[in-house]
Amino acid sequence: DQQVKQNSPSLSVQEGRISILNCDYTNSMFDYFLWYKKYPAEGPTFLISISSIKDKNEDGRFTVFLNKSAKHLSLHIVPSQPGDSAVYFCAAFPSGSARQLTFGSGTQLTVLP
Amino acid sequence: EAQVTQNPRYLITVTGKKLTVTCSQNMNHEYMSWYRQDPGLGLRQIYYSMNVEVTDKGDVPEGYKVSRKEKRNFPLILESPSPNQTSLYFCASSRTSFNEQYFGPGTRLTVT
Q1: Is A102's CB within 8 Å of B92's CB?
Q2: Which residue of B has its CA nearest to A33?
Q3: How many Å lie between the alpha carbon of A78 and the closest alpha carbon of chain B?
Q4: A10: distance to nearest CA of chain B, Å?
Q5: What SS3 state is found at A82?
């Protein structure tokens, strides 16, 4: 049973528009969430994170929103650029000392010029 | 340049032939981890290490071994590979277990 779910395998948006990638989780012990971006033939790279004590974190064009009551987070990219085309993984850490990162299945974002 | 390196990048082998995938980081990170990526399943953790000589199982440890004798190296060992271990493998490291992880470029393994 996947504890971190990304229900949209793919998403296409026009350049300049907003991209919204969604992620749901089931484990209430998760307290730190991260987004990673992955290009083909490369390892994932860290993009942005949010702690469960916050509901929003912003870094340039990227904003992550966390809704703890709904166990849902989203990544907003504004404005989207063709270079943002990649697979985006949502990931979560549980609280406690043995911190294992649990990943979602990923969403392929395609930004059309 | 700060990086995580993995070798080999590509490997085709036969069932039962022992193999090792090496992983090395030059950032003096305490935490290292191995993942496998399979279609529709995302990245699943195989093993992780909180520090030298400290390792523990992740979500899918069966069929794999690891060791952490030095801080910079964390090899993944498949004693008797099977076709269901055909996958894309990533090594990762972070300063501590509480920090974001840096990933290597991946190793594409095919077991026939």
Answers
A1: no
A2: B100
A3: 23
A4: 11
A5: helix
pLDDT of residue B19: 97
Cα separation, B70 vs B88, whole angstroms? 24
The residue behind tokens 């992955």 is A38
DSSP letter, residue A28: T
Taking only the tens place, the pLDDT of each residue in A86-100 is 999 999 988 775 568
Average of per-residue pLDDT values in chain B: 95
Interstrand relation of B65-66 and B54-57 (parallel, antiparallel or unpaired): unpaired
For residue A10 the two structure tokens come to: 């793919």
Give whole-number Cα distances, B96 to A38, B50, B56, B68, B101, in Å.
Answer: 22, 7, 15, 15, 9
pLDDT for B8-30, tens place per residue? 999 999 999 999 999 999 999 99
Give pLDDT, residue A98.
58
Q: Is B86 helix (H, G, I), strand (E, B) or coil?
A: coil
Please answer whether residues A13 and A19 qualify as being in contact, where contact means their C-beta atoms are separated by less than 8 angstroms. yes
Positions in chain A short of pLDDT 50: none
- Report cis status (omega within 30 of 0) of the bond before A113: no
CB pairs under 8 A between A and B: 54
B90 contact residues in A (CB cutoff 8 A): 43-44
User: Residue A85: what residue type?
Assistant: S
Q: Return the residue of A nearest to B4 by Cα.
A: A43
Q: Flag if B42 and A6 touch (Cβ within 8 Å).
A: yes
Tokens standing for B59?
A: 């979500």
